[in-house]
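Homework-ish question, so no full write-ups if that breaks the rules, but can someone show me the predicted structure for this set?
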Amino acid sequence: MTLRTLLNAWPVVRQARGGDPLGRGAAVRSPRSASLTARTAEADRVVQSVCPYCAVGCGQRVYVRDERVIAVEGDPDSPISKGKLCPKGSATKQLVTGPSRVTRVRYRRPYGTRWEELDLDTAMGMIADRVVAAREASWQDRDGRGNPLRRCMGIASLGGATLDNEENYLIKKLWTALGAVQIENQARI
Amino acid sequence: MRADGRPVSGIADLRDDGSTSCGCWIYAGCYADGVNQTRRRKPGAEQTWVAPEWGWAWPANRRLLYNRASADPQGSPWSQRKAYVWWDAEAGRWTGQDVPDFPATLAPGTEAEPGAQGVDAIGGGDPFIMQADGKGWLYAPTGLVDGPLPTHYEPHESPVATPLDGQQANPARVLYDRKENAYNPTAGEAGAEAYPYVMTTYRLTEHHTAGGMSRTLGHLAELQPEMFCEVGPELAAERGLEHGGWATIVSSRTAIEARVLVTDRVPVLRVGGRTLHQVGLPYHWGSKGLVTGDAANDLFGLALDPNVNIQEVKAATCDVLAGRRPHGEALRALVERHPSNYPAHRRGTVTT
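A: Not a homework solution, just the prediction itself:
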C-alpha cells in the first residue's frame, strides 16, 4: 500500500483534497456506506395516507413489503405538512406494528375478571344477537295516540373524535336504519 | 347519484322529485364525473397554496366556509396579500382561490327584496349565509343560553374576584352538587386561600390525549417518560419544590403527584395587586401503558359551560405541596383535611 493510498483512506484528507469541503459527499463514502440503502427502497409499493393522530391531517407515505408495513414517512407532496411529521406521526409504524396493538378480539364476560380471546366470527355473531334482541325488546311502533314512532330506544351510539367522516357517516346510517335515535359523538360543536 | 347511475357533480344537481339520491347532502359531488375526488393527491407544489386538488372537502370542495367575508362589502379583498375570494365585475360573478361560499352571481351591492325568504333574503354584502340575516353576530339575541352579548366571567374556581361587575362566574353554568365533585371555594368565599394557585392543563407534542396511542409506544414513552407539573422559580421557592423532585397537587377532588419541572415559561401574573402563580399540567398520563403516572384531569371538578356543556378543565385552583402523595385512606384524608381549618360543612356544596 502506497502512502498515497493510505492517506486517501482517511476521510479528512479526501475532504481537504477533493471537491467535497463540507464532507457530505464522496469524501465520507466507504464500502460500508456505499452498500447501504434506505429501508424505504425495499418496499413493493407505497400508499399515501393521513396521520392517525391529531386533526391536522399531515400526509404520510406508508411503505409496504409482502403486504406488511415496513416504514411510515412524511409525504412531501402534502400541501398540509410538506413532508414533515411530529414525533407522534413519526412513531406511526410502531403504532401499527408494535406489540401493544390489540389484534385479537378480547372479551370480558359479565362479572368476569379477566379477558378472554374470541375469534372474530364468534364475536360478530354475539354482537348481532345482542343488537337484534335489544332492538326487539325496545322497539316502539306507535305512541299512545297511534302516531307512528318506528324507533328503537334500547340502543345508543357514542362515537369518538378520531372517527373520520366516512366512519361517522356509516355509523349514522347503520343505527338510523335500525331505528336508534340516541346517536352521539364526543367531538363537540 | 342520478336515477341512471351517473354521479351528481354537486349539491345543485340534487332534485326532490326522486330522480336523484344522496346519503348526505354535504358530500354531493365527492364522486363527480365518476372519479373519487377524495382520493386525489396532486402534489402541493404543482397547484395553488389552497391546493384544491389535494383530496376533497365538503361541501363542494370548498376549503374555507363563509369565504365571502375575505372580501369587503364592495367585493374587493380586504388584503391584497391574502386575497382569497372576490367579485369579478366583468364576468358578473364571484371568483378566487377557493370555491366561493356565496350565491355565484349575487353582486356586492344587491339588497334583498322586502319579504324575501331563506337564501333569497341574503344581500350581496352578507357573507354568513347560514345565519338568517347573513351577518356575523356579536349581539346574539337567540341561540346562546348566556347571551346576548359576550362578557367576562372568572372561572368557576378562581383566586381572584372579578373586577368587572360583581358577577363572579357564569350564572348559567352547569354544576353538579355531589360529594365526589366537591368544588374549591372561589375568591371571596371562606377557605379560598387554601387553593392559592391557578392550574391549567396542556398537551405535549410527544403524547396524544390520555396516552392510549402514545404511552403504549416505546419511542414516545421514552421521549416523555414521566408526568410532571411545570412551575416558575418563585412558586418552587415558595413551596420548597426541587427541579426533578416530586410535588403533590391538591384540589377538593383529589391529590396527584408529579415530577417538578421548574421553567421560566410559566409567567408570574400580577392580578388585582397580588402575585398569582400558575401550575401547568400535561394531561396525558394514567395507570396503564409503558410509562404511567397520575392523571391531571382527576384534579378537576365538573363545571360545564351552558351552551355546549364542556367541562372547565383549563382553569381551576389548587395547592402544591413538596413530595409524593399518600395512597388509599391517607390520600382521602389529605384531600379532606386540606387545609385543616377548612369548614367541613362547605364541602360538596354548590356555590354561585
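Now go work out the reasoning yourself. Hint: The helical segments of chain B are 218-223, 233-239, 328-336.
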